[in-house]
Amino acid sequence: MTTPAFASTFSAAVLAKAAGISLMIFDVDGVLTDGGLFYGEDGEAFKRFNALDGHGIKMMQQFGTAAAIITARQSPYVLRRARDLGIAHVFQGVHDKRQAFEQLLQHTGLSASACGYLGDDVIDLPVLTRVGFKACVANGHREVKSRSDYVTQASGGNGAVREVCDLVLAAQGHYEAALAPYLA
Q1: Which residues neighbour 129 within 8 Å (Cβ) at sequence distance 6 or greater?
Q2: Residue 2 clears pLDDT 70, i.e. is over it
Q3: What is the pTM of this model?
Q4: pLDDT tens per residue across span 90-110
Q5: Selection from 85, 69, 55, 60 nearest residue 171 by Cα
Q6: Is the pLDDT of residue 3 over 90?
Q7: What is the distance between the alpha carbons of residues 148 and 76, in angstroms, rounded to a whole number?
Q8: Element (H, E) at 173
Q9: Helix pair 51-62, 175-183: axis angle to 10 deg
Q10: Do 25 and 164 contact (CB within 8 A), yes or no?
Q11: In the 8-state DSSP scheme, what is residue 146?
Q12: 3-state DSSP call for residue 2?
């Protein structure tokens, strides 16, 4: 198994932490989206998701690392996106993310150390500080960045999720296999 060249840009500690996770949890606003909200005439909030991020989640799941969403907002678009990506664990309208995280652990039977989290704001800290692999988007809040194992180069909604998915695939030795069908 070969290690992709970009993996050398990560510290051994970051790779080791990412290698040990079975579930990667994502916030939505500011992580899966750029954090901007567009309101329609009826007050409906629209979100823009990144296709590269979505494909990264699909590849990561294909190689055994599940994905989950924990978000403070409630939106039918999040459910639609989760369904499109095959994400089974979705917690919306959650202002106490710690409680949702505990429910997720009970449901999956995983330990907190077997999980990773990608967030951007202080509302994410109750989960981020408990998981085995902690990540923050480039444009995240300084308090989240300072408590993270890894801060992405890309900003939320603009490839940060894909960056973390690629990191997880590389750390777990699956990156080249994930690319193989596209290089055949």
Answers
A1: 147
A2: no
A3: 0.94
A4: 999 998 999 999 999 999 999
A5: 60
A6: no
A7: 30
A8: none
A9: 110
A10: no
A11: H
A12: coil
Contact 57, 85 (CB under 8 A): yes
Measured between its terminal Cα atoms, the distance across the chain in Å is 17
25-45 core/surface letters (b: 16 or more CB in 10 A; e: else): bbbbbbbbbbbeeeeeeeeee
Q: What's the pLDDT at 40?
A: 79
% helix, strand, coil for the chain, step of 5: 50, 15, 40
As beta bridge partners, residue 46 has 38
Amino acid identity, position 93: G
CA distance 103 to 30: 23
- Helix locations, the chain, DSSP H: 12-19, 51-62, 76-85, 97-108, 125-128, 142-146, 160-171, 175-183
CA angle 83, 149, 176 (to 5 degrees): 60
Contact 116, 128 (CB under 8 A): no
pLDDT exceeding 90 applies to what percent of the chain?
82
Q: How many residues does the chain have?
A: 184
State the Cα–Cα distance between residues 139 and 122, nearest whole angstrom. Answer: 13
| Token pair recorded at residue 170 | 């590389």
Closest residue by Cα to residue 47 from 59, 63, 36:
36
CA distance 121 to 183: 37
